[in-house]
Design goal:
The record marks 40-41 as: Contributes to redox potential value. The protein is an alpha/beta fold. Helices cover 35% and strands 26% of the residues. The chain has a single domain (13-114), classed as Glutaredoxin. The chain has a five-stranded mixed sheet with strand order 1-3-2-4-5.
Amino acid sequence: MKNAKPVANSKRIKVLNNKNFKAATKRGVVLLDFWALWCGPCKIIAPTLNEIADSQTDFMVAKVNVDHNQQLAQKFKVRNIPTMLILKDGKEAGRIVGVKTKRTILKEVDAVMAG
């Protein structure tokens, strides 16, 4: 399971881990999904995140597997998954917990980008 892939893959979703996280998130806006292979709701939200990643160029969509990157989950106090953070220049600017619609997610990201 060490090399477990995200539940659903878009070529535009970046897989982040403890090693590449800081460099990948230090500039711009990132929609970051904390997920796990065993998480049913994570499987439900995955196609929506793929659609967002495939249609957006203004921000990056990324995933962090909580089972393999517990330090990141702890750093951001992720207690439930799926949890999506909206990072702006490396800092948390928004948080979405649970399965949400594409419209709701994009509204939250747009608010961070506008602010």
